[in-house]
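From the shared-data thread, chain only:
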Amino acid sequence: MHLFNMKGPWDRWSSFLYEHVVAEGIGELYDALVDLSFSSLPPGCRVLDIGCGSGRASVRVARKNPQAKILGLDLSPDQIRWARRRVQGLTNLDFDVGDALNLPLPADRFDIVFSLASIKHWPDPGRGLQQMYRVCKKGGWVYVIEADRDASWKEARDFVSHWKWMVPVTRPIVSLHFLTFVAGQGVRKASLLGLFQSTGFRESYVQKIVGHPFVAALGIK
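Structure, as tokens:
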């Protein structure tokens, strides 16, 4: 993966850039996600984060829910190296290299399977979603957030303004890059709903995240 083609694993340079520019500035978004969807998990709950990147979301889930077990997988060894630095004694969290299209995990294993801004990097998002469905327990849920292909200029500009080192002179250029090459290779609300419905979930819901250039989908197995 590079700055203009979102497919494939992150290389060392892309991982470094994301870690120190993007992720450093959007911590409050990670916090909001955890507070909204992972604030009180039951004891023994198993959670899988696919395309975990440098582990920021997984770490927050683990800290918020010490009674749950969280596993983060990513195709990029460089991202997993960043993630493992964050474990810092958390005994309920682990990270490993893994391919979303061929998950090295047994079926019906996890209560919650989620992916945050990762599926646009997958060569075959439909196959990846089928893998998420396979490893999720019956009655469990699968949660996906991805960049919205129909995002507005204002949503992109506001999102980019949170990134570290953003100054007024660079913001329009970076916003255009985000709209063209990130959101532009993301998903539309209708197509994401179609993916979930064709996968076989008992219930599927998709919504726009208001004020942000993202859409979210929930599937109940």
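The first strand starts at residue 46 and ends at 50.
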